[in-house]
Design goal:
Elements lengths: L1 H14 L2 H25 L6 H4 L2 E5 L2 E4 L9 H8 L4 E5 L1 H14 L10 E5 L5 H12 L7 E5 L2 H6 L4 H25 L2 E5 L18 H15 L11 E4 L1 H9 L11 H20 L15 H35 L12 H24 L4 E4 L4 H17 L1 E3 L8 H20 L6 H29 L4 H21 L9 H12 L14 E2 L8 E2 L2 H4 L4 H19 L3 H7 L5 H5 L7 H9 L3 H17 L14 H23 L4 H11 L1 H12 L2 H4 L1 E3 H7 L2 H11 L1 E2 L4 E4 L6 H31 L6 H24 L3 H4 L1
Parallel strand pairs: 3-4, 3-5, 5-6, 6-7
Antiparallel strand pairs: 1-2, 8-14, 9-12, 10-11, 13-14
Helix pairs in contact: 2-31, 4-11, 5-11, 6-8, 8-9, 10-11, 12-13, 13-31, 14-15, 15-16, 15-29, 15-30, 16-18, 16-24, 16-25, 16-26, 17-18, 17-31, 17-32, 20-24, 25-27, 30-31
């Protein structure tokens, strides 16, 4: 029975694996791209269409447009925006209520100071409406840039809901349209016609009883038929029909006191929609994609696109040539290719990888720098965060396997560690949980754990191997930074924007300080030809190190003091990184390295903590005070029990402290020192019991192997608007389906990037057989290319980037 089950699972794994999922994912993305591209073209490429039409009420006071993101404006931003605009609200008492609410929404408590916003009482479309538009056409300066207009209820009431009133409304609007079009063409005025919201008929006073919802729908249909082909596409440039205000009123289910005028909360939501409508393309907030045109393409991006096209052309030509050449060569030599011989010509392998990474980067660009795919805001709730957390926990537990390595922090265990941390961070980002301070503090701890592993892993390698060569350092830095540098070019973002990679790279280079003379490392005992029976003899390099342990203790202490001194003053720290080209690596925004200061000082001891922990582990193991060679406790039973108990207390204490945090700034200061305790406690709990140390979750470990690609890739192809929103590949009305689809595509892309990075490392860094000179030339070529790109970027830097 058990054997049959294992055979069945093995058969399933051969069919359902990451390779087969990738083959399905590519045509799926292509289909979605075509479908969404057609929809985008059908809407006329209107950046405001998704804001004007449709949406859903997520919860009370939160409106989510259909496929774009609303920005929550600060008063300083609204002042900056609205001082550039003359806004006219034209219509009946409904529009007047919206006008007063809008003014109070953007300038709380300043209703009497309306600035450049004015309301014009015009309850019906008549001669007065024509005269108003004609007067604006004659004005040189005081015409409005934006007109918000709506009217219908007074016409219905005056004509007692008759068909003649509807026909009169249609005739008058038809006469008004030429003046509206003329104003948009000559003055570049934007006109937004608001459709009529439904009324609550049983609350209407007697004179208003003629106003019914079926009649309002007929009036709305007149407006739609005359001004737009649908709710998505306008008939006239500069004139748009707005339907989202109706959806807000219907979905809010708020009850107005008189049945006609809308509730204050509904008007506030409508005001927020209008503010995004007016200001997003002027202020260009990152988290406000509604009605905001995509950024223009930079010279560096155009160059990257041209290189990708060239790679594709050369790849196709080379593949055809190599195939023909190989066939003729085999014929001449009379050779037969063996089955399973998958040797690939190096040039073909490189070009294939270049084409694939180019297509992936193009997908990144389409997702987050165009309006083809939709975006939505994050809306945090405890359920949205903790339910996915429970799912992945159950999957992780279900996939427990036995490791072949029982040593402390073995490779399977560290992969598992990276995996579950990365999945939690992804859930944290997609749900917008950063607003919850306790969760934020625990995520900060996970970032510190990543840096801890950077210190632990690289210290272990350097101490045991003694390999401080350029090839090793260059290889690590290339693998860490390959995807990030590509995204900096394609997505037009500074290096510091992807803060995790600069952190890991910087602290790795700091750790290289142990390579400074005199070097301290422990070479293993090696058998030599001069020793009988293969008895070990110390390497000559080791003999020259009289006390590598004492020397390393001194170096670690010196590094600790150096870190303290560098971070004593923010001004000194910023001065250290404010010279070219360092400032180009760590600036965010342009010309400022304050973000780098914040990120760097937050976990300034985490890497050193990892190195010290590894050093102590090595010493304790050599002194035989610690035994991880078999499935048993690391220490004696009493010491193990005491250590685990204290570690559990420390972890619980940290969580209690994080739960009671009320200020991110104050808690971050404590975190930079306190993170050492919970990290150490977790490692002890995970490794002291032998049965914990010898098992691991293959599910988490699989994700751990691509954790870097997942962390960086999420910025643009799982999240959106540079992590401020969520990418929508399918439909904003099916969030669960969309999350499944985007997640599958995202994971497949991350896995593919991980493989391609390995290919490029092979070509850029070379193999162990290469000479030091060859490695140095490759390194210089990479540095020269990066400096050239920075110079080009500085020359063609946009004004918006420089400010």
């Amino acid at each position: 029975m058990g054997n049959n089950l294992m055979m069945t699972l093995s058969s399933v794994n051969k069919v359902v694996n990451i390779a087969s999922v990738k083959k399905i994912t590519f045509p799926l993305v292509l289909c979605l791209l075509i479908i969404q591209g057609i929809r985008y073209i059908d809407s006329g490429g209107n950046a405001c269409g998704r804001l004007l039409n449709g949406g859903s009420l997520v919860e009370a006071g939160l409106w989510q447009p259909a496929g774009c993101m609303l920005h929550k404006y600060k008063e300083s931003e609204t002042k900056t925006c609205l001082k550039m605009l003359n806004i006219a609200f034209v219509g009946d008492s409904r529009v007047r209520e919206l006008f007063y609410t809008f003014v109070d929404f953007v300038f709380p408590g300043s209703l009497q100071n309306q600035g450049k916003m004015k309301f014009f009482w015009l309850p019906e479309i008549n001669v007065s409406a024509l005269e108003l538009y004609q007067s604006w056409l004659k004005e040189a300066d005081s015409f409005p840039n934006i007109i918000i207009q709506s009217m219908a209820t007074h016409t219905i009431k005056r004509t007692n809901g008759s068909d003649e009133g509807l026909q009169e409304y249609k005739t008058n609007l038809t006469k008004l349209i030429p003046s509206m079009v003329e104003l948009t063409e000559e003055k570049n005025t934007e006109i937004y016609w608001l459709l009529q919201e439904p009324v609550i008929h049983n609350l209407l006073v007697a004179p208003r009883r003629a106003i019914t919802n079926p009649l309002l729908l007929q009036y709305n249909e007149v407006v739609t038929s005359l001004l737009s082909t649908s709710f998505r596409k306008s008939l006239f440039k500069g004139i748009s029909v707005m339907n989202s205000n109706v959806e807000v009123a219907i979905q809010s289910e708020a009850t107005p006191t008189d049945g006609l005028h809308l509730d204050k909360n509904v008007l506030t939501l409508q005001s927020n929609i209008l503010l995004n409508l007016f200001c997003n393309d002027l202020i260009k907030p990152i988290d406000g994609s509604c009605c905001q045109h995509p950024p223009s393409v930079s010279v560096v991006q155009l160059t990257a696109f041209a290189i990708g096209i060239c790679c594709l052309g050369v790849f196709l030509a080379t593949k055809l040539f190599l195939k023909t050449s190989s066939a003729s060569h085999d014929t001449e030599k009379g050779t037969n290719t063996k089955d399973g011989d998958k040797s690939v010509h190096p040039l073909a392998e490189f070009l294939s990888a270049a084409v694939r990474i180019s297509l992936i980067l193009l997908y990144f660009y389409i997702c987050d720098r165009t309006d083809i795919f939709m975006k939505s805001n994050k809306h945090y709730t405890h359920v949205r965060f903790f339910v996915p957390l429970l799912y992945i926990s159950l999957l992780g537990v279900f996939c427990i396997d036995q490791t072949k390595q029982e040593s402390l922090l073995n490779r399977d265990q560290t992969d598992e560690w990276k995996g579950w941390m990365q999945l939690i961070i992804l859930i944290y980002h997609v749900t917008g949980a950063s607003s919850n301070i306790p969760i934020y503090m625990h995520i900060r701890l996970l970032v510190a754990m990543y840096l801890f592993m950077t210190g632990y892993g690289h210290f272990s390698y350097f101490w045991n191997k003694g390999d401080f060569g350029l090839r090793r350092v260059y290889g690590v830095m290339f693998r860490l930074n390959f995807l990030t540098v590509m995204l900096c070019i394609v997505m037009d973002r500074p290096y510091q924007f992807y803060y995790f990679v600069p952190l890991c790279s910087f602290w790795f280079l700091v750790l290289i300080a142990m390579a400074l003379w005199p070097r301290a490392y422990m070479l293993p005992v090696k058998p030599t030809s001069t020793t009988p029976n293969g008895v070990g003899q110390l390497d000559e390099t080791y003999k020259n190190h009289r006390s590598p342990v004492a020397l390393m203790c001194f170096k670690i202490f010196a590094l600790f003091v150096g870190i303290i001194l560098v971070f004593l003053s923010q001004d000194i720290f910023e001065a250290l990184f404010s010279w070219w080209p360092a400032i180009r690596l760590f600036e965010l925004p342009a010309g400022s390295v304050r973000e780098w200061w914040f990120r760097c000082q937050l976990d300034r001891f985490a890497m050193l903590h990892g190195a010290v922990f590894c050093f102590l582990y090595i010493i304790l193991k050599r002194l035989k005070l610690l035994d991880d060679s078999k499935q048993g406790c690391l220490f004696s039973m009493k010491a193990s029990l005491l250590s685990v108990t204290l570690s559990i207390i420390v972890l619980l204490s940290y969580s209690v402290w994080a739960i009671h945090c009320t200020s991110k700034q104050a808690c971050n200061i404590i975190h930079s020192y306190a993170s050492i305790l919970p990290i150490t406690s977790f490692i002890l709990i995970r490794n002291i019991p032998g049965y914990f140390r010898s098992g691991y979750s293959s599910f988490f470990a699989w994700f751990g192997k691509i954790s870097l690609e997942l962390f960086i890739g999420q910025y643009h192809i799982w999240l959106a608007a540079d992590t401020k929103g969520v990418l929508v590949l399918t439909s904003p009305y099916w969030p669960s389906l969309n999350l499944v689809v985007t997640t599958i595509v995202f994971v497949c892309v991350a896995h593919e990037i991980n493989y391609l990075t390995g290919v490029f490392v092979k070509f850029a860094v070379g193999s162990s057989r290469d000479t030091s000179r060859t490695s140095f030339i490759r390194f210089l070529a990479t540095i020269a290319t990066l400096c050239l790109m920075m110079v080009i970027n500085d020359i063609f830097r946009r004004p918006s980037q420089a400010t």
